[in-house]
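testing teh design pipeline on a random one, pls ignore if ur not involved
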């Protein structure tokens, strides 16, 4: 059986970004935001009103860089004056790419390189990738906008609201982010397809809302595996932020977006992927239960890889 101190050690020493690395990344991204915010205000081709950090980096649930755990940052560009009906992922990304090249004609400037792929900025030295995510803002609804998918879909979203959702759960349980990183490390190491980082955050938030803050990290992690195994991911997951249900979803897995109750965050999980995720979680629960019962820390490496450790 692993105590909280041991699992927090693994999180701090192996999973979480070191403080100095996070400071470096934040400094690079903050300088980029500052420069872009000052430069894009008067642009006539595309009007960017706000640039904000998003994704796992902004939520503090990102994993330390490794061969299986890439480190990237999402920067949301709020764009105004664009028609939602006439916009697309390709057109908006092209506009952002053209804007970046216009601002930095050489594409390779002081400490970063502009890449064509989805208007990506790669910082030299650290190798940090920053993906530009264009969102067409909704007038008179602060933070709200439409994000476009490569499949032609568009989804109403709110990047600051998603960050606040995670912050609220972290404030209620200081181990929430540790649990998210543990779940993500397991997903990456076992190559569980279809289960996104956002889904892991939401399932663990649901368990916290249902059962309260965890007393033992190991037990809540086992609860995470067991919930997926027993439910088969066939129960609809909703949050207090959603309010009464207004939409009936038909996809195999339904985890409602806490900032948009008309969006099923798991809509792209196929029936085949659902079964594979459930099978992987069932195996993970059995492994974790065996490791806990036998009090053998080495067994945990089957879930998290050879770098799992709970002490120096």
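output:
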């Amino acid at each position: 059986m692993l105590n909280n101190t041991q699992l927090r050690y693994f999180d701090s020493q192996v999973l979480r970004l070191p403080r100095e690395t996070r400071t470096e990344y934040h400094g690079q991204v903050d300088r980029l935001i500052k420069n872009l915010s000052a430069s894009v205000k008067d642009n006539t081709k595309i009007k960017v009103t706000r640039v904000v950090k998003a994704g796992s980096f902004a939520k503090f649930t990102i994993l330390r860089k490794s061969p299986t755990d890439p480190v990237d940052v999402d920067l949301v560009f709020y764009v105004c004056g664009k028609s939602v009906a006439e916009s697309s992922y390709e057109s908006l990304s092209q506009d952002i790419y053209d804007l970046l090249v216009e601002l930095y004609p050489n594409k390779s400037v002081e400490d970063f390189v502009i890449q064509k792929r989805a208007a990506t900025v790669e910082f030299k030295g650290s190798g940090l990738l920053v993906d530009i995510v264009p969102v067409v803002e909704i007038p008179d609804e602060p933070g709200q906008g439409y994000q476009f998918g490569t499949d032609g879909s568009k989804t109403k979203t709110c990047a600051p609201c998603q960050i606040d959702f995670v912050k609220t759960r972290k404030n209620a349980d200081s181990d929430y982010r540790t649990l998210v990183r543990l779940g993500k490390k397991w997903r990456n190491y076992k190559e569980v397809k279809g289960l996104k980082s956002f889904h892991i955050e939401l399932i663990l938030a649901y368990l916290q809302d249902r059962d309260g803050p965890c007393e033992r990290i190991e037990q809540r992690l086992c609860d995470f595996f067991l919930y997926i195994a027993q439910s088969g991911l066939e129960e609809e997951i909703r949050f207090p932020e959603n309010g009464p249900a207004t939409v009936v979803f038909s996809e195999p897995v339904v985890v409602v977006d806490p900032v948009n109750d008309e969006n099923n965050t798991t809509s792209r999980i196929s029936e085949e992927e659902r079964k594979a995720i459930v099978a992987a979680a069932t195996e993970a629960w059995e492994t974790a239960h065996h490791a806990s019962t036998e009090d053998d820390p080495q067994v945990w490496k089957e879930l998290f890889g050879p770098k799992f450790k709970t002490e120096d």
